[in-house]
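Weekly puzzle thread! Below is a chain. First person to post its structure in token form gets bragging rights.
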Amino acid sequence: MFRHTAACAATLALISLATPFAVAQDAAKPMDHSQMTHESMTKPKGDQGPSSQAFAKANARMHEGMAITFTGKADVDFAKGMIAHHQGAIDMAKVELEFGTDPNLRALAQEVIAAQETEITRMKDWLAKNGG
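Winning reply:
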């Protein structure tokens, strides 16, 4: 029994040491979206209520928008990807305003919308001036 327990403990220790390296390697690989469908992206995991549906749709739109064709120009790619990312934050904040009830989070949602809209304008202006 002790041998089995010790062997299991040693195996778990090795796995826990190797996991960060495996995760880091996986993070360097591009994500395979070939099995994803629009339905799988817009159907929420868990609850299927109206707010969950709205969050899932916002998330799917954001990820679709972030799937840019990369130019190799970090500044351009950053701006293009972040515009979609920020729009996703705005869309999620609007879901909070539609369905949320907590006054603090509703206020935060308003702040998110204002801040992200300002930053989107700034990035669009930069792209327009810099051939993006």
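Puzzle host: Confirmed. Bonus trivia for everyone else. Helices lie at 2-28, 38-42, 50-66, 74-99, 103-129.
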